[in-house]
Each structure stands twice: as structure tokens, then as C-alpha cells.
Amino acid sequence: MKKDEIIQYWIKSSDEDFEVMIDLFNLKKYSYALFFGHLVIEKLLKAYYVKNVEINVPKIHDLLKLADKSNIELTDEQKVMLKNFNTFNIKARYDDFKKKFYEKCDKEFTNENIEKITEIRKWLRANII
Q: Three-state DSSP class for 28?
């Protein structure tokens, strides 16, 4: 695949995950919605990486590390958001974190974070295109 095709692949995949995140939220599957929210941002960071670094993306899921490797400049607030989004990946996957994470993921908490994911998503998309 060409560079532009790889970038479009990551953007399209992120867009699909964004739709799934919203669907899961509407189904009240809050922890899973946030897990997909992490994927939304991860894939856009990978698109940014391809655009600005090289076509072979790092096989990592840590959003802060991806941002760093992508040479993207983040505000302190954005760094805090990415650090928080990282927990949606870890805590949704591992049994020892799941129970506490599920209890934390009520409608209000999830909605607040979906708004933040949407904000970062818009910003990343604007910087990729």
C-alpha cells in the first residue's frame, strides 16, 4: 500500500470504531464504549505517525508513547487526557482491574470521556488531513 492508502486505512478504521463507541454507549455498555474510544485515538495517532514519520507504525498501544514517537506536540491538558484514555485499554482488558473499572463507568463518567475523546479526535483529524 502507498502512504496515503495506509493513512486512510487508519482513519477509516478509527471512524468505524467511533461509531461502535457511540453504539455501545447507547446500549449502556459503558466500559466497552471507552475501550473503543481508546482505539479511536490510537488509530488516529497511527495515521499521524504514518503521515509524519514512516509507514511502519510501532506495535504499541500506549497513546502517550505513540504521540511521542509521532513527534506531535501536545498541550499538558491533552497529555492528561491521553494518559486517562490509556486506562480504558488496560482496565477493560485485565480481570484484576475490570470490576473497579466497570463500577466507575456509569453514564456520566462515560459521557464526559466520550466528549473528551471526540475533542481529541477532531483535533487529530484536523492535523492529519
A: coil
Residue 123 DSSP label: H
Chain segment 11-42, per-residue pLDDT in tens: 999 999 999 999 999 999 999 999 999 999 99
Q: Which residues form the domain of 97?
A: 3-128
> With left for phi above 0 and alpha for psi between -120 and 50, is residue 103 left, alpha or beta?
alpha
Residue 97 pLDDT greater than 70, yes or no: no
CATH code, 12: 1.20.120.330
Distance from C-alpha of 80 to C-alpha of 86, rounded to nearest angstrom: 10
pTM: 0.93
Residue 2's pLDDT is what?
A: 95
Please tell me the total count of domains within the chain: 1
- DSSP for residue 129: -
Calpha distance 88→69 (Å, rounded): 21
- Alpha helix stretches (DSSP H) within the chain: 3-26, 30-52, 63-69, 76-93, 95-104, 107-128
